[in-house]
Specification:
The protein is of the alpha+beta class. 25% of the residues lie in helices and 11% in strands. It folds into two domains: 21-44 and 144-362, Jelly Rolls, CATH 2.60.120; 58-137, no CATH class. The strands form two sheets. The protein has a five-stranded antiparallel sheet with strand order 1-7-4-9-2. The protein starts with 20 loop residues before the first helix and ends in a 7-residue tail after the last helix. 39% of the residues are buried. The structure holds 2-oxoglutaric acid and fe (ii) ion.
Length: 369
């Protein structure tokens, strides 16, 4: 039975029975720390799976509509201190290729994405065009909670989700970032790569690394990614995650900020050569995960990982990435975590639309009073 949290109003969008408690209860801390990942197989209830899929489909349609309906060429970039977008990327044909998920970077430069995150792309017109919903000044793919109350609840407040993240992190964790990672049929997937904690201030090796700094101790400063696949990510349909159990104990943000050409053979012939698990002594090996519908997977984001191609005949892979991290005791005091769009969270806080639970998860590492 779920005990309502007395201090908060329960959001209307909340689905109480989101996760299967017996799957949540199976989490094995020792295995997670040893392997660097944990599969929550079939953890979504049928209703949870339906709601998650419906939200991701709706958000994808909203974002695709914004890509196609916005007059990107007419936006005054210079007035906002931004470079104009290259004209060849603004044709309807090109923009069509940016739809369907995971292709938004072809249209929206990193500079523009950061501007939307910090300031929001609001008026004066022309600006983002939304049909039948309010613009939040950014794209749904870059921060889905801004456009969907169910996703806002499950990523910031839902008791079962907070219990899941609590198992990974302990008492306190802050949101690092949320990205929608739908992949259309025929999507090519991603080569082997990993990610640094925050801006890489604490990395002990560079992005290739030789493995000298391997440690048997689970690192205290951790960012852990959780992918939810309401319709699965199986071998048959593709878009499946590849991991290397134990490789998270080498603190190497592999090719995090460069081209990612490596597939399994390249990885076996180079980075994996001679690397062993610092606890078990076994040679490190690649594992591809086939996750049935309604599953999630959590993994330490220092571990190199890979995404298989999505088969051309499969339906789109629906996926949300939810990345949280342990707070950094040395971070500058800040009201909000740097991964939350500042313009959005400040507007929500001013309008008193953030629950106490969301304020905790969105707070800075060392929250300012
Ligand atoms: O599954 C995906 O689409 C990407 C997974 C990934 O690289 C990540 O979450 O960092
Ligand atoms: Fe990644």
């Amino acid at each position: 039975m779920e005990i309502p949290d007395e201090e908060e109003d329960v959001p209307a969008a909340r689905l109480h029975d989101l996760l299967r408690p017996e799957v949540l209860a199976k989490f094995d801390r020792a295995a997670f720390e040893r392997d660097g990942y944990w599969v929550w197989e079939g953890i979504l209830t049928d209703a949870g799976r339906q709601r998650w899929t419906a939200s991701l489909d709706r958000l994808q349609a909203m974002g695709d509509g914004m890509i196609m309906d916005t007059d990107w060429a007419a936006i005054d970039y210079a007035a906002r201190g931004l470079e104009p977008l290259p004209p060849e990327t603004l044709t309807p044909e090109f923009r069509k290729k940016c739809c369907g998920g995971k292709k938004l970077g072809l249209l929206i430069s990193n500079e523009l994405r950061i501007y939307m995150h910090d300031h929001g792309l609001f008026g004066p017109e022309p600006t983002l065009v939304t049909r039948g919903f309010d613009s939040q000044g950014l794209m749904p793919e870059h921060f889905a909670p801004a456009y969907d109350a169910f996703i806002l609840d499950v990523t910031s407040a839902h008791p079962q989700m907070m219990e899941l993240f609590g198992k990974l992190f302990g008492a306190r964790f802050v949101l690092d970032h949320i990205i929608m990672l739908n992949r259309a049929p025929g999507n090519k997937g991603a080569g082997w790569h990993a990610h640094p904690y925050r801006q890489g201030e604490y990395e002990v090796e560079d992005a290739i690394g030789e493995g000298h700094a391997v440690t048997p101790r689970f690192l205290q400063r951790q960012c852990i990614r959780t992918l939810v696949h309401p319709e699965g990510a199986t071998f048959e349909e593709g878009g499946e995650l590849g991991v290397i159990p134990g490789a998270h104990l080498y603190r190497i943000p592999y090719k995090w900020n460069s081209a990612r050409p490596d597939h399994d053979e390249a990885m076996r012939n180079s980075w994996l050569q001679g690397k062993t698990h610092p606890v078990t002594g076994a040679a490190l090996e690649i594992v591809h995960l086939s996750l049935p519908p309604g599953s999630m997977v959590s993994f330490v984001h220092h571990m190199p990982h890979h995404v298989g191609p999505r088969h051309p005949d499969a339906p789109p892979r629906r996926t949300l990435l939810m990345a949280y991290r342990t707070p950094d005791p040395e971070a500058e005091p800040a009201r909000w975590s740097e991964g939350i769009p500042r313009q959005w969270v400040e507007r929500m806080a001013a309008a008193e639309k953030l629950s106490p639970a969301a304020r905790r998860v969105f707070a800075g590492d060392n929250p300012r009073a």
